[in-house]
Structure formats: structure tokens, C-alpha cells
Amino acid sequence: MSASVASVAVAGASGRLGGLICEVVGAHPLFELSERVGSRSASDAGADADIFVDVTTPEASPAIVERAIGRGQRVLIGTSGWSADRLEALERLVEATPGAAAIVVPNFSLGSVLGTALAQLAAPYFSSIEVIETHHAAKIDSPSGTAVRTAELMAAARAAAGKPPVDSPFAEQPARGELVAGIPVHSLRMSGPVALQEVRLGGPGELLSIHHDTFSNEAYVAGIRAALQALREAEGLTVGLDRVLGVGVQA
């Protein structure tokens, strides 16, 4: 994509993150907001935009993204629910579509990206790992996309280091959380918090805690800008803001 201004359509524009992305696009000299797409919009809404941003719901997202890629649009996905299985299907779609480019960002916060990178780095050294994530009461999906990606990256780091799966005793009990890549993840939905994630890694005689807390939407602005700018020249599928920024252990 040349240095000319790129038009951007945002699906999920009425939501918290969608509204923020619209503000970031409107304030950026290389982008212009062409359309706000909502749940009642036609299926071809935003079809003329150079870049299509999806921040909708886990149920709606795959079909929305597939249509945008089929139209030849560059796609930025900030919707939760893109598990490893979904990402594999998306990668196949992108590879089968000439010139396609998509970036999936579970969390646009720079601090969150660094927290996940630290957890990934530490994971091979601890056999006991659990994730606790807290979000505002209006977040409808759980676990969060950030928690899912963190658990998957930690499990992959352990496997790459030749380590056995995480020790998660009594995992069959509902109160022990949901297993994601063999790692228990606990989700809290409460009034008050914006977003918080803590990874606890236990070993003989010690506990390492990696804690990240988001206080306002301002934490996401730099990551949104970076992802949009990277999408102008991206090729194929990129998963994670860490990949966009070149941060942490790449797996």
C-alpha cells in the first residue's frame, strides 16, 4: 500500500473498543474512517474500504472476516475468541487468497504484550501455572482472548523446551477453571475493573506472579496505531501485537 491515505471501515464501531479505534483512525494522518459498521448493517457494509477492522463478537467474527478477505481487503481483527483452531482455519484462508493480509490482536495494550512475553519466557521453568483474568461486567466472552493466547504461548514454550504439560491437579472440578492448552484459566467479570491479568507460576519453595492492570482505554491507543500502520505493508497472517512490535519469544 502506498503512502496515500487508506480508508478504514470498523465493524463493531458502537462498542467500547470499536469506538476507540474510530477515534484513533480519525486522528491519524494516514487513515480516514469511511464507515462505522453495526450489527444491523448490510453484509456488504464497508466493502469499499482499504482496511476492514473487526471488533464484533466471537460468534459473528469469522464470517465477517472471511467476507472481508474475500473482497480483497486488509483485515485487522481485535475480536476475542480466535483460538488456535480458528487461527489455523484463518491461515489456510489467507494462504489461499492471493495478496491477502490479516493481523489478529488479542490485546492492543503494550503492557499486556510484554506481560505475555515474560510469561512465555518463564513457562519452561515452572511446572505449576495458572492464569487469572478480570474484565468489566459487560465483556460477554470468557476466557479473554489475551488469556487464551497467553496460555497457548506458554504451553508451546514448554513443549519447545521439551518440558511435560503443566501440572494442573483436580482440573475436572468446575471451580478449577477452564483448561486452555492444559493450563487452568480463571475468568472474573465484575463492575469496576477495565482489564487485569495475572499469571502465577509455582515451583519448589517459590511463586512468580506476572501482573498487568489496565486502568483506561488510553492503554490501547499505541497498539492500535502500530497494528494499523503494520497492516499497510503486511503479508499473510500475523497473530499478536508482539509480532507487530517484534517483542518477546516468537513461537
3D structure, described in words:
- The protein is built from seven helices and eleven strands.
- With 251 residues, it is α/β, with parallel strands linked by helices.
- The chain has two domains: 6-107 and 218-245, 3-Layer(aba) Sandwich (Rossmann fold), CATH 3.40.50; 110-215, Dihydrodipicolinate Reductase, domain 2 (2-Layer Sandwich).
- The strands form two sheets. Strands 2-1-3-4-5-11 form a six-stranded parallel beta sheet, with helices on both faces. Strands 7-8-6-9-10 form a five-stranded mixed beta sheet.
- A hairpin with a 2-residue loop joins strand 7 (178-180) and strand 8 (183-190).
- Helix 4 (110-122) runs parallel beside helix 5 (145-160).
- The chain is globular, with a radius of gyration of 18 Å.
Briefly say what this structure is.
This protein has 251 residues and is α/β, with parallel strands linked by helices.
Chain-wise SSE layout:
Blueprint: E1 6-11, H1 16-27, E2 31-37, E3 51-54, H2 61-70, E4 74-77, H3 84-96, E5 101-104, H4 110-122, E6 128-136, H5 145-160, E7 178-180, E8 183-190, E9 195-203, E10 206-214, H6 221-231, E11 236-239, H7 241-245
**Please, what is the CATH homologous superfamily of the largest domain?**
NAD(P)-binding Rossmann-like Domain
Strand order across the largest sheet: 2-1-3-4-5-11
Rg on CA atoms, Å: 18 Å
Number of strands: 11
Instruction: Enumerate the spans where pLDDT stays under 50 for 5 or more consecutive residues.
Output: none
Number of helices: 7
Helix fraction?
25-40%
Largest sheet: 6 strands, parallel
What is CATH's topology name of the largest domain? Answer: Rossmann fold
Round the mean pLDDT to the nearest integer and report it: 94
